Amino acid sequence: MEGKLVxxxxxxxxxxxxxxxxxxxxxxxxxxxxxxxxxGNKTLCTVLLILRLLQLIxxxxxxxxxxxxxxxxxxxxxxPDKWQFLLAVGVIVTFFNICWIVVLGxxxxxxxxxxxxxxxxxxxxxxxxxxxxSFGSATGAAPSSDGASGETYDKVAASTAMMFFGSFTILWxxxxxxxxxxxxx
Length: 185
What we know:
The chain is mostly helical. Helix content is 71%, strand content 0%.
């Protein structure tokens, strides 16, 4: 044993190794720059991409159903403001989700781990703003029993439910980004 240690010290001094078996004790520090606990750029982008796709589905349903309700009015400005607000928020969040999906798809293939800090920061601010907007619009547009009735009531309720589901997926994304930022070393 002592002879092997002496041999290893000699090979380290000369910089030449006699066999690959001697390299088994060598370990390389391949820490993830900008991320903690092994969460890499690809994992971060994949999880956020899945959550963005869920948000996109819920938001498209929410604003499509609400657009049908608002379109039922002879003049669209006659629709209640709270329904128009839900429609506008749905369109805005859908647009930005499509942009995020394109960006995350491109960054997920990137091998530069230093970009993950920027992804976390941008996603955090995006999620904070749009979680508040979508949750607020869903809460404001929620149908009351004395308001709309029949098919209109059902459509508004469905649109509001989809907007709530969309805001919950934004909150999941916010939670994930917060976890990543918290474990970042």
